[in-house]
Design brief:
Length: 455
């Protein structure tokens, strides 16, 4: 059944905000470019021509619908934020009910208390929770907390890891310029406009290299405020013992360990990567999946560190954090409805089983077409690299045939699949799995026929 969100129905009445079906796409994109830089809303791609050649009107479960009446299977899912798919009925109901009651009361809200309680129940490191509006904001706050807690300044991150677009950590990420990266532990800013003075505060370590990470920590311990880890680093799993080793290293050197669970939180397991791997950090950041597409982030952690956010703490221990919309009732109501749905028996078994079948199906296909491929990721995080070179860290992952991945993504669009095929939600089942694999096979045939497959 096609469930149209009530908000969408409102938009439909106003042609200026909701472009009618059969609208001229080219004209719409020209209009976007007249009012928005590049006609898009982020800088994720260096090539504006790679933006989709259509606009969406609405989503429903696993699918997205365009202004010109096409239906796409969504394998992007709001940058991976829609664990329950589009417009999950219980989330829509919670959000619309709360919107009618009001959103922001300049005070904590009932749904935010409920959501914090649920997070404390589910997330191993969480004694307390503070909400933000995004993953980036959560990371900003987590860095401030560990700096306050240790009275030190430097942060160690892993090469290639992305922790949001804030100045403080936008160094040597997967959106950066690897050809100019210095050797770790030196970092490289990924954008103009980041103040020069803070580059020395960001230390870089190679993923999965405990020995070099240990050396960097030892060499910098006088100034080190914390270590931040993306537990499945850009789709690269950790080698056995690596996360445990980082935990031990942090404990031995009395430096806080942050898991950035913006991607893995409530995805790998209810308790995120920390439950999945059995490694408990001191602090964690959340975003994406907890809000089912509504703007919501969170920092959760142990009482010692989170205590700095208690207004009753001493002046010399207190950390400032304030956001007009933090704890807003609509986003946190979405969060409560999301976690309630994720807590239903069978959810993670389904996500893992879909992930396992997708990984196996894609690997078989790529091999059948003689592509050198390595599958990666964990459970419901499915990634792949087109290279036979062993991949352990971000630098080695650059050996993948990026041009081929790009061609596959755009070819998948002509098969009515949005995204490269690797993301999925609880709404993706056998039909969607078959659609994805069939579309991938058709893409590979088309690329082989045009001579682009092994180019
Ligand atoms: C691991 C990680 N941390 C932080 C962020 C930033 O979150 P947001 O885009 O909500 O600001 C992202 C976003 O992709 C992420 O993947």
């Amino acid at each position: 059944m096609l469930l149209i969100c009530p908000l969408l129905r409102l938009c439909e009445q106003d042609e200026r905000t909701y472009h009618p079906v059969k609208a001229n796409h080219k004209k719409i994109m020209q209009e976007a470019a007249a009012y928005m830089p590049g006609g898009i809303h982020h800088t994720i791609s260096h090539n504006p021509n790679s933006a989709p050649e259509f606009l969406f009107t609405h989503g429903d479960g696993a699918y997205l619908y365009t202004t010109d009446g096409r239906r796409f299977l969504d394998t992007m899912l709001g940058h991976g934020s829609l664990l329950l798919g589009h417009c999950a009925p219980t989330v829509v109901e919670a959000v619309t009910t709360q919107a009618a009651l009001g959103n922001t009361f300049t005070h904590i809200t009932q749904p935010s208390i409920e959501l914090a309680r649920m997070m404390v129940e589910d997330v191993p490191c969480a004694d307390k929770v503070r909400f933000t509006n995004s993953g980036t904001e959560a990371v900003i706050l987590a860095l401030r907390l560990v700096r306050a807690h240790t009275a030190k300044n430097k942060i160690l991150k892993f090469e290639g890891a992305y922790h949001g677009f804030a100045d403080g950590l936008l160094y040597s990420t997967n959106y950066g310029y690897p050809d100019r990266w210095p050797e770790p532990p030196s970092s490289d800013p990924d954008s103009l406009g980041i103040p020069e003075g803070q580059q020395d505060l960001v230390l870089i370590a190679p993923w999965n290299d405990l020995e070099r990470t240990t050396r960097i920590v030892r060499d910098n311990i006088e100034d080190l405020a914390g270590i931040i880890v993306e537990p499945v680093m850009r789709g690269l799993s950790s080698q056995p013992g690596f996360l445990e080793g980082i935990r031990e290293l942090a404990t031995d050197h009395d430096t806080p360990l942050i898991f950035d669970e913006v991607r893995t939180g409530f995805r790998l397991a209810l308790g995120g990567a920390q439950e999945y791997y059995g490694v408990t950090p001191d602090l964690s950041t959340f975003g994406k999946g907890i809000g089912s597409g509504y703007p919501l982030g969170a920092v959760a952690g142990n009482d010692q560190i989170m205590g700095h956010l208690n207004p009753a703490s001493l002046d010399e221990e207190r950390v400032f954090s304030l956001g007009t919309f933090h704890s807003n009732a609509v986003s946190t109501a979405a969060g409560v409805a999301t976690i309630r749905a994720l807590r239903q028996p069978g959810t993670y078994e389904h996500l893992k089983s879909y992930g396992d079948q997708l990984r196996a199906g894609l690997e078989e296909l790529f091999q059948r077409f003689d592509l050198p491929v390595q599958m990666s990721g964990e459970a419901n995080i499915v990634e792949w690299f087109f290279t036979t070179e062993p991949i352990t860290d971000y630098r080695s992952s650059l050996a993948t045939n990026l041009a081929l991945s790009g061609r596959i993504s755009s070819e998948m669009r002509s098969q009515n699949i949005f995204g490269g095929g690797g993301n999925f939600s609880t709404e993706h089942g056998d039909t969607e799995l078959s659609l994805t694999l069939e579309a991938m096979e058709a893409c590979l045939v088309s690329l082989r026929d045009s001579g682009e497959l092994n180019a």
